Amino acid sequence: MTREDEALLRRAIELAATARAGGNPPFGSLLAGPDGTVLAEDHNTSITERDITAHPELKLARWAARELDPDTAAATTMYTSCQPCGMCAGAIARSGLGRVVYALSNEQLATLKPPGTGFTDAPAEGPALFDEARIPVEEYYR
């Protein structure tokens, strides 16, 4: 990790503090181009916007997918105050971002939370009805 990486990561941590000061969970992120120029930044607004998906990593991944061509997106680095959750990691992968640098790991974050404050997975069943479900999917990829 370079000094430039550390400086941009510190900015993501500042954005996390901004989120917390505004009544939101303390997470912040920014997206930098290959030369280190900040292209976009955001912080968590899931409480104030009443939107469980308003994570900064997801918002920046969506922005990049809309605003950047694939080659530019692949040359970016996302700096984020905490390791992206599964939802955000999926969006980052689909948006084609080049690299993610984070401060806290999910394991470190868990040690900072009171017991019992994590999320549990909803019960799931499946796979089922393969022969029916595959028809629209197969047709899409042909």
TrEMBL record:
InterPro entries: CMP_dCMP_dom (IPR002125), Cytidine_deaminase-like (IPR016193)
Pfam hit, one: dCMP_cyt_deam_1
One GO MF term: catalytic activity
Gene3D superfamilies the UniProt entry points to: Cytidine Deaminase, domain 2
Domain of life: Bacteria
Residue span, CMP/dCMP-type deaminase domain: 3-122
Protein name, UniProt field: tRNA-specific adenosine deaminase
Lineage: Bacteria, Bacillati, Actinomycetota, Actinomycetes, Streptosporangiales
